[in-house]
Each structure stands twice: as structure tokens, then as C-alpha cells.
Amino acid sequence: MLRDLNVALRQLRRAPLSAAIAILTLGLGAGAATAIFSIVNAVLLQPLPYRAPSQLVAIWEANAEKSLPREPISPVNFMDYRALDRVFADAAAWWRPEINLAEPGNDPVRVRTIETSGNLFSLLGVSAERGRGFPAGGPLFSRDRIAVISHRLWRQYFHGDPAIVGRTIGVNEGQYTIAGVMPDGFHFPDDVDLWLRLQWDMSQHSREAHFMEAVARLRPGVSPGDAARELAALMDRLGRDNPSTNKGWSARPVPLLDDMLGYYRPALFVLLGAVGLLLLTACINVASLLLARAGARGREMAIRSALGASRGRLVRQMLVESLLMALAGTIAGTAGAMLLLRGAIAATPVSIPRLEGVGVDGGLLAFALAVAAGTALLFGIVPAVVVSRTRAAEALNESSRSSTSARSHSWNRALVVAQVALASTVLVASALLVQSVNRMMAAPTGIVSEQVLTTNLQLTGAAYRQWPAAGQFYAALLDRIRQQPGVVTAGAANFLPLQAGWRVSFSRQGDPPPRAGEEPIAQAHSVSDGYFDTMRARLVAGRLFTRHDGPQSEAVIVVNEAFARKYFAGEDPVGRRLVGLPNGIGPLGRNLMPRGTPHTIVGVVANIQQVPIGQPMEPAIYHSSHQFPFSAMSIVLRGPDTAALTTAVRNAVRQTDAALALGEMRTMDERLRSAAAEPRLLMFVLSAFAIITGVLAAVGVYGLLMWVVNDRRRELAIRLALGARPSTLARQVTFQGVTLVAIGVAIGLFASRAAGTLLQAVLFETGVGDPVAVAGSAALVLAAALAACALPAWRASRVEPLDGLRES
Fold first, then answer.
1. d(CA 266, CA 134)
2. pLDDT tens, 445-457?
3. What is the pLDDT of residues 386-404, one digit of tens each?
4. Cα–Cα distances in Å, from 38 out to 41, 237, 334, 361, 365?
5. How does pLDDT run across 172-191, given as a tens digit for each residue?
6. CB neighbours of 221 closer than 8 A, spacing ≥ 6?
7. Which runs of E-coded beta strand occur in 532-598?
8. Cα 40 to Cα 252: distance, rounded to the nearest angstrom
């Protein structure tokens, strides 16, 4: 082996340019593969840092009849799920309140918070770093105001106070005692910094209210499929026993890691497949390079064979050379990739779960070694076999190169076809993503998002415990905002576009009461006067809210077009009345109109996208915030200067109530862009892989044709001497290259269709056979092939007959 290594090093020094090109090509593929694997390893393959993580499942509810595929759960339903002790060892649930954290001497801040059942930490198997946390084995809810904070919040907001446990903090209008600090990096369920003890009995709530999230622990030996069957049987029974609230509803358990990853799971598999194709293309490219040297190596190997070397010995020698190049390429590529990866992760515009765990570990090193060994075998075996099969007499005869050359040509043509097929597959996938992202960005939202700034507020304190005071506060705040310089219009809403409102049942006045479980439903929103004007929502019929639509006037609502089409098809909904609308939304909002008051539809607005992009529009009812105030509202302002709008809202809040904390300020454009941030990131990375793979394939076509021209110089010289036109020879060379490319493109398009199931999971309104993406990708590959054919074709047409005959 040492002798083989010594010979391999001499061979690399003898052809330094070829060695450098091979190592660079392999480094590119190996580096990309290692970088993506390190992400996949940290995000997908590593178990969650909880006790027996494979037993953890999230629970979601769904209603296919109402087109609700993934809904939060009802708290009363949750208590029934938790009672399925044959499949669940335990279950915890939480909801997400809007929280202001106020400390003496500090400005109030908004903190991402959940109010959770007391068993959450024990269910996950995670203990507090400081303090006891929630009492172990205690009840699910408690009137004790206990809080647990994250390590990050302890460090950043409380400055690492060593006496933090037992300290009292102001949370909204209440005082909570800090019972613990969680370990560094723990933010379950998603970037949470404050966990509050649940204050109310879930069994005393409503089955109709779907607003909680849940995680359960399966008993040992129980699979998610077993739990799904038990849940299905339970929901069937609940649907019969409680048709008005449970008919048509189902529940399903989802492995917790799959639930946390969501879109990223199929996206990472797509990237892993694409980088695998890139690495394979790099190996084929290097194999083509080594085959181009097969003629010269054939003579060398024939001499060694004549001196007694066995065929296996010769193959081993060439594989050692390949392994040396593969190791050099993998080391260089992996080192470069890991250096760049940290910067790339820091610049990533989206929050990918568990991405902070990316790093160098034993698994990554083992993968890099496997890449080196695998690539060495992939690109080294074909040249080694071709060269080792050269007969000694044939190779030593300088006038006879036909056999080795023919075998090399045959293999190289096959490798070029494979390269083009791989490049076409990746290019089609990236083109489909480009189409998908473009369609997502162009999807109608029903608003004009330019020049709109958004933020949010949560009212706290004794002054707002009476609901009319909440409505009066937002009315006064909006009046002050509108008076600020740079503000064109302003309004407020409890849910912004792309956010779903509360889904409530109702009935039309005068209609027979609907049967239990068949009540019509719609999203319920509360918006101020000026909101639709600020969003530039189009008024279809009737009027919008005014400041005079208060609790002392007629109860009025505005509905969207989807509502009008579904529940008033062929009728004019303006002037019609709805009954049975909710009297309140828990502690979050209160309808100030007397219970049972009919609400008159005074207007119809064009559909606003009140669900994530890609989901169908839902019927929506908009209440006036003067009649149905909420404690937490989002403020929207329109104006040409974002900085002026930021100053305006801050000044107005300070003048109205300086003790309130403003939430994050973002333009509406930023919110819409963030909805497409995940597929856009995948598109950029996949497009980069497609470009690299395409360039390598084009280089392969170019290398093959240049080799063909050089190998056929004598033949071309004779044909020119006998009167052949130079243009004819150029066309023949070009035709040979384009034919191989066309075959590769056809195979690549077929392969991309075969991978359709994986691709479809990350596409938006784009099929895997999208004609624009497929035709565009094929045209791009063919254009690159023509460009790669140009120089070899020109060289073929410029062969001097006399020089060509002399070289032979």
C-alpha cells in the first residue's frame, strides 16, 4: 500500500493541472454534500433532547367537511384524549396569551409566552436549571401564579440575577413568582421565553373553542398508528354524543419531531437528493477526465502487466490514486463548507428548528470519510477497469490505439449522458420551485401591502378591566396616530392578513334552526374604522365601519365575498341579519351588544387572505372594534415613510398610555415576504446546486468532444484532404454532442417526474409536470450543450490536413 501511495503521488505530480481540476471538482461536490448532511443530521436525524423522544406526539384536530386540515384542539376534548390511558402515559396542553412583562426600572416588553398545564416539563423529562419549576405531580391547573423563565430571558432581561428564583414579576396586570429557570437552549414549543401555570380548569371550558395545542407521551410499545385508531374511535363517539360541537371533527397524533419540522422535512430531503446528484455529477466529471488519459495510462499498465503485475494489482493501483484525490477533495471541500456554513446559517432569513445544533461531530466525520471512499469508487472504478483490460501487445504497438480508445469513448459517452440526466433532474426541480415561489408571491391577498407598517399592543392594568374602556383606548390611540405627521390612514384589527380569526357558528335570522353539527361557521374578526381603508380592501357593496358604530348604536357587521357567495348565493346580503354570534371570546374580547342581539350586515368587502397562502379563502365576519373590543390588537398605519410611521405610533402610544409595550414593528410587505421565505430559501439553494451541476455537465460535454476531435485528427485531416467541407465536420461534431445531451435530457425529465411525490410536498400550485418549468429546463440544458459544442466543432473545422497526417 505504501508503494501504491508513492506511485499515486508521483502520478499526481506528473499531471498537476489534471489533479488540481479533479480535486477542485470533487471538493465542490463533497463540500456541498457534507454541508447539507450536517444540517440534515442536526435537524432531522438527531433525536429531540427530551426523555424517550420517540414516544412524544403532537395532537391536532381537523374537520374535512369545513376544510380545516390542522386546527388547535378544544380543551374539553383534550381532557378526553388524556383519559385514553391505554395509549397515552400523559398529555400536556397550552395556549398562547399576549404578554407584557413589566419590571420596575425597565421598559415593558413583549415576551413570547405560553400558559400551560403543570405537567409539561415532567412530560418532556426536562428539569429547571435553577429552582424547582412547576411542582412535580401537581394538578394540571392552579390558581397559584407561578412562572418559569428561559435561560435567555434570565440573562438578557434580568441580567443573570442569581436570586431570580422567588422573585415577583409583573405579567400583564398580575404578579407572578418565578419558580425556575430552564436550561440554556430550551424554548419549547417554539422560541418561548416565559411559561405560566395554567389558571383555569380545562374540563369546564367549551368543546366548540379550538385554541389549545397539546403534546402527549405514548406508552411503551404503542405506535402513533395505535393512538390514531384510539383517537378515531373516541371522536366518533364524541361526534354522536355532542353533535353540535364534535360532529365531523377528528384528531390525529403526529410524531413531535415531524410536527416541529413541518415544511422543512420534505425540503431537506429535496436538498439532500439534489446535493447527492451534484456529488454524483462531480464524480462522473472526474471519471471522464481520467478516461481521457486512458490512452497514455494504457501503455503504462501494459508494460506493468508484461512485467508480471496482475489485473487486480493494476486496478488497486488506480483505485489508490482515486482515493488519494477523493481524500484531498473531501478534506478541502468539507473544511471550506464548514467554515462558510456558520456564516450562511447566521444569514438565513428564516428560523429552522434545531439549526443551532449544526457542527462537526463523529457522525459528520464518518460521513465525510464515507463520501471520500464512495467517490473514489464511483469515479475510479470505470477508468481502472478500462485501462486494466488493455492488451500488452496492442498497447505497445504505437500505431494501434483503437481498442483502448474505443472502450474509453464508449464509457465516456455513457458518462456524459448520465451527467446531463442528473443536471436536468436538478434543473427541473429548481425551475419548479421558481414557478412555485413566483405563484406564491403573486397570489392575491386582497390588500395593498406597500407603505403599511404593523405593530401590536396588549392592554394591561386595572384601567382596562371594563371592556368599554378597551374599545375607547384604541379609538383614542387611533385618533392620535392619525394626527401624527406622515400618517395617511390608520386602523386596528385583532388578526392581520394571513392570520385566521376565531371560527364561530351563527344562523341567518328567519331561517329554521340548523341541525346539531351542521351550523354554518365563519371566521370572526374585530376591526376598527379606518382598517379597510388602510389595507385598501375593496368595498363590494354597502358601507364600511365608522366611528359612530359604537355600543349604543345598531349592532353591525361587514362580511367578505366568500361569506356572501356561500351563505347568500344569488341574494344581496346587505341589510340581512345574523343571530347566534358569540357574546365573547374568553378573556380576550367581549361583544358589548346584549346577548342574542341580531347583527345587521352593512357591507361586503373583497376577500382578504385570512389564512396562510395556499389555503382557500374562508367566509369571514368583521365586527366593529367599538362594539366587540379585544385587549390585544394589531395597529396598521399607511404612509410613504416607514421611519415617520414608526415615530408616529410610538408617540401616540406614549401619549395615550406610556406603560404599554409595543410589539415588533414590521411592514406588511415584510410579513407577506416572510410567508414565502421558506420556499424562497429552498429555491435559492436548489438553484445554486442546479447551476453547479449544469456547469459540470457542460464541462463534461466539452471535454468529451475535445477529446473526440483530438483523437480523430488523422481521420478529419484525411476527410478534409479528400474535399470534405469544414462546416460539415463542425456539424457532425455538434450533432454528436447534442444527441448525447438530448438523450440525457430525456432521462432527466423522466427522473424528475419519478421524484414527483417528494417535490410536490414543497410546491405551491405547481405540478411536477409544469410545462413552463420542464420546457424551460430542457431548453436551458440544450443551450448549454450547444455552447459546450461550439469550440470543439470549431477546432474540428480548423484541422490542417498536412498537420493531421503528420501527427498520425
1. 36
2. 999 999 999 999 9
3. 666 655 545 455 444 444 5
4. 5, 46, 10, 9, 10
5. 878 899 999 999 999 999 89
6. none
7. 539-542, 556-560, 577-579, 584-585, 589-590
8. 26
